[in-house]
UniProtKB/TrEMBL annotation:
The lineage of its organism: Bacteria, Pseudomonadati, Planctomycetota, Planctomycetia, Planctomycetales. The gene is ftsH_2. GO terms for molecular function: ATP binding; ATP hydrolysis activity; ATP-dependent peptidase activity; metalloendopeptidase activity; zinc ion binding. The active site is at E477. Homohexamer. It is found in: Cell membrane; Membrane. This is ATP-dependent zinc metalloprotease FtsH. It is a multi-pass membrane protein. GO terms for biological process: protein catabolic process; proteolysis. It comes from Symmachiella dynata. The keyword Transcription regulation does not apply. Keywords: ATP-binding, Cell membrane, Hydrolase, Membrane, Metal-binding, Metalloprotease, Nucleotide-binding, Protease, Transmembrane, Transmembrane helix, Zinc.
Length: 667
């Protein structure tokens, strides 16, 4: 029975509004293979000769027959010639005899065609071989001579046997060992064993492949204006150098996931018409020490050769985290890679038109040396789009989507406060998918309603409640909905449902009516009363609490603790910041730091103030629900009948909502 409030929707890790793809990466610079020496060539030739000599005794066209069958064919004068060795006899038939299953030693008979299988019997191949019996057949040569069989003798030379059985495996192992030692003599060299590892895996896009420009980037006007200067410098570097101006060497794009940092970097390169090198921060790190630093050197060297150009490092926090934090020292591979990045960015000269763009959603963990002027001179924050920006993003993503006349993008933009560009792209895609499943030829407004609920609340779950659980869920959500209807400092109620979605058994959905960047104490207390309304309704109707209020209590407690410890909204505590258990992204750093910097007595007072605020909110919620018990029963009955109620449905059941407050005044 989780109840979402006006908190931002879940983030999507994909970038913001994006149209074209990255395009095919251009080919990397070829690596010249190591030349084959004479010794290696001779070794290969000798190996081939020995292998061919060995294979001549493995002629698969020979029939392997039994010795008694060989004697029968000799008595029938059907053998033309034989070659006798120490253990084998190789021969040729005068006329290939008919093959029977009991005549063959190991060689299976050939498969005959379906039409000729009955008309033609299976015959042995022209040549055969037979294993000589352990006991010597003294009459064999005399019988062969009596039948006028051409007899020849052969014996494998001792040198060949020695080569095949002893020297060939030794030479093969020595050749492999020599090859490995030669490759590892200079492991980081051009032809070394690790030569491919040190090559930068950055994808290179040429100007012809860059189809994304600033026209494809909706909203983010401030960021685009900052980057426009970079575009002009890359197009005409001498214009700035005449006045002694130096363009920033590095620009850091900071923002929440899905706000369009990667898209903006790609659009900057497309607008400037210069080569674009793209790499993720984690691609520098490898299992071999020093590989990351070598990749950095290779990437910057290649970029300088292609200047003017743009380097984009996505998720730079993977390699640029602060040094000397947590477990690990200066020998760490990540820190060596970071040191190389710092050195390369210092090595630029004013004449080298190479600009580094980097993106992160964790600027707080970056090393200070990386953020100083001279490396990343400019820090551009990319926020979630405003209503006008969301409208522009929706227009970009609906260019190729056939829309019905009842779709109002302005209304959709107003109801998606807190959505990032990636969330809006996902919203349009989910609406198009729903329309396709319904067999429509255009996307309608109800498809966007479905997509909005799915993105914000999660997919619908198929669960069966018993009657008591269903009724308790209905009263819980009705309690939330009624307080949202009656409290003027709470955002407008959009929908309430007892259909399980995501991890919630029921949802009361609020929609902010305006962009809000600050909040006052009065609105926070009203928000707490709304959060505890479902729990208060359960106690009022059923005289017991349920486990369904777990998420409500967690959110309410966290908000009340922030009010007291972070924002100083308590007369007993006063204007003091009492942060507790600050989250550390580095392993082991919290071990060396105190968990809190205040006494146990202050902690006790803080807990008491948090309890006081929560008790007051619960009392306020219970009092309002008691005074409006009849409306609470009507709402719960409506939910039991329809399972979902929109704002218009609630107006028909209990009347109009109270006037909302905006900026301290009613509207």
């Amino acid at each position: 029975m989780n109840t979402p409030t006006d908190s931002p929707p879940p983030q999507n890790p994909n970038p913001g509004p994006s149209q074209p793809g990255n395009g095919p990466p251009s080919a990397k610079r070829p690596i010249r293979p190591a030349p084959i020496s004479r010794g290696m060539l001779m070794f290969i030739l000798v190996s081939v000769v020995l292998l061919l000599y060995w294979l001549q005794y493995r002629d698969e066209s020979l029939a392997n027959v039994r010795y008694d069958f060989f004697r029968e064919q000799l008595a029938a004068n059907n053998i033309e010639s034989v070659l006798i060795e120490e253990e084998m006899i190789y021969g040729t038939w005068k006329k290939p005899p008919e093959r029977k299953l009991e005549d063959s030693a190991t060689t299976p008979p050939p498969k005959a065609d379906a039409d000729s299988e009955k008309s033609k019997p299976a015959l042995f191949p022209k040549k055969f071989n037979v294993v000589r019996p352990p006991a010597e057949d003294k009459d064999l040569l005399a019988d062969l001579d009596a039948k006028n069989v051409e007899v020849t003798g052969a014996k494998t030379p001792w040198g060949i046997q020695f080569l095949l059985m002893v020297l060939f495996p030794i030479l093969l192992m020595l050749g492999i060992l020599w090859f490995i030692m030669r490759r590892t003599s200079d492991p980081m060299g051009q032809g070394g064993m690790l030569g491919g590892f040190i090559k930068s895996p950055a994808k290179r896009f040429m100007p012809a492949e860059q189809q994304t420009t600033f026209d494809d980037v909706a909203a983010m006007e401030n960021a685009k204006s900052e980057l426009q200067e970079v575009v002009e410098y890359l197009k005409n570097p001498t214009k700035f150098q005449k006045l002694g101006a130096e363009i920033p060497k590095g620009i850091l794009l900071m923002g929440a996931p899905g706000t369009g940092k990667t898209l903006l970097a790609r659009a900057t390169a497309g607008e400037a018409g210069v080569p674009f090198f793209s790499i993720n921060g984690s691609e520098f790190i490898q299992m071999f020490v020093g590989v990351g630093a070598s990749r950095v050197r290779d990437m910057f060297r290649t970029a300088k050769e292609s200047a003017p150009c743009l380097i984009f490092i996505d998720e730079i926090d993977a390699v640029g985290r602060a040094r000397g934090t947590g477990v690990g020292g200066g020998h760490d591979e990540r820190e060596q890679t970071l040191n190389q990045i710092l050195g390369e960015m210092d090595g630029f000269t004013p004449s080298e038109a190479v600009i580094v763009l980097a993106a992160t959603n964790r600027p707080d963990v970056l090393d200070p040396a990386l953020l100083r002027p001279g490396r990343f001179d400019r820090h551009i924050t990319i926020d979630r789009p405003s209503k006008a920006g969301r409208l522009g993003v929706l227009k970009v993503h609906t260019r190729k989507v056939p829309m019905a006349d009842n779709v109002d993008l302005d209304s959709i933009a107003g109801g998606t406060i807190g959505f990032s560009g990636a969330d809006l792209k996902n919203l349009v895609n989910e609406a198009a998918l729903h329309a396709t499943r319904e067999g429509k030829d255009r996307v309608e407004n109800e498809d966007f309603e479905y997509a909005h609920d799915k993105v914000l609340l999660g997919p619908r779950r198929e669960e069966v409640f018993n009657e008591h659980e269903r009724e308790m869920t209905a009263y819980h959500e009705a309690g939330h909905a009624l307080l949202a209807w009656l409290l003027p400092d709470v955002d407008e109620l959009h929908k309430v449902t007892i259909i399980p979605r995501g991890r919630s058994l029921g949802v009361t959905q609020l929609v902010p009516d305006e962009e809000r960047y600050n909040v006052g104490e009065k609105r926070l207390h009203a928000q707490l009363a709304f959060m505890l309304g479902g729990r208060a309704a359960e106690k009022l109707v059923f005289d017991e609490y349920s486990a369904g209020a777990e998420d409500d209590l967690k959110k309410a407690t966290d908000l009340a603790r922030r009010m007291v410890g972070y924002w100083g909204m308590s007369e007993a505590i006063g204007p003091i910041s009492l942060r507790h258990a600050e989250h550390q992204p580095f392993l082991g750093k919290e071990i060396a730091e105190h968990q809190r910097e205040y006494s146990d007595e202050t902690a006790r007072i803080l807990d008491q103030e948090v309890q006081k605020i929560l008790f007051g909110a619960a009392k306020r919620a219970t009092q309002m629900l008691t005074e409006n018990r009849e409306d609470l029963d009507k709402l719960s009955q409506g939910l039991l009948e329809k399972e979902a109620l929109a704002a218009d449905d609630i107006s028909e059941i209990i009347g109009a909502a109270v006037s909302r407050t905006r900026g301290g005044s009613e509207k």
